[in-house]
Amino acid sequence: MVYLVSTVFGIGKLRPAPGTWASLASVLVGVVLFKLSFWVLLAATVLATALGFWACRARLSPGEDPSEVVIDEVAGQWLALLFPTAGFTFSANGAAFLARMREDWTCDSGGLLSQAACQVGGAFHDLPWPAWVFAFALFRLFDIWKPWLVGRADRKGTPDGVMEDDLWAGLFAGLASVVLAALYHIPLVLMR
């Protein structure tokens, strides 16, 4: 069980870049979780974090951080996704955007994007996907670059540090994606 959790059912064995594969899988599963509800994504993030600390403590000795252990990437990536998702879900602009999307992007509107969305089952129809792309890219950047608290947690060399560096990376990526979204959307709102 520890092996399955720590490698996220073997995703950690994918090469090259198992952390990136795990982050990508997290985004794809995150789409499904978000489609169920923001609260489901939040609960999954908390569960992945708790299971990650448990698995890392059970499996790793101090100083170990094997690349196949990717539960930390799942927890960190979902944390990063929570920030733009919360803003999108609970803001008035997010609600208005969804209403416009439902009116403009129906399958019979004839537009190229609407037809593409319908062909993939509308998976991205109610999803703040640009922010999720930024959250994914920024999470990978912070996880690899390891600035400030991310690097400090990584240098702890403890099983908890394995989880903490990715949680810090997720926090920073989530906050940065919200800032980028605000920088994009605020001028659009002011121009109305």
TrEMBL record:
UniProt keyword annotations, A-Z: Cell inner membrane, Cell membrane, Hydrolase, Lipid degradation, Lipid metabolism, Magnesium, Membrane, Metal-binding, Phospholipid degradation, Phospholipid metabolism, Transmembrane, Transmembrane helix
Taxonomic superkingdom: Bacteria
Cofactor: Mg(2+)
Reaction catalysis annotation: a 1,2-diacyl-sn-glycero-3-phospho-(1'-sn-glycero-3'-phosphate) + H2O = a 1,2-diacyl-sn-glycero-3-phospho-(1'-sn-glycerol) + phosphate
Subcellular location: Cell inner membrane
Enzyme Commission identifier(s): 3.1.3.27
UniProt-recorded Gene Ontology molecular function terms: metal ion binding; phosphatidylglycerophosphatase activity
Membrane topology: Multi-pass membrane protein
Entries under Pfam families matching the protein: PgpA
Pathway in which this enzyme or protein is active: Phospholipid metabolism; phosphatidylglycerol biosynthesis; phosphatidylglycerol from CDP-diacylglycerol: step 2/2
Record-annotated membrane-spanning stretches: 21-54, 74-99, 129-148, 168-190
Function: Lipid phosphatase which dephosphorylates phosphatidylglycerophosphate (PGP) to phosphatidylglycerol (PG).
Name of the protein this chain belongs to: Phosphatidylglycerophosphatase A
UniProt record, GO biological process: phospholipid catabolic process
This protein's GO CC annotations: plasma membrane
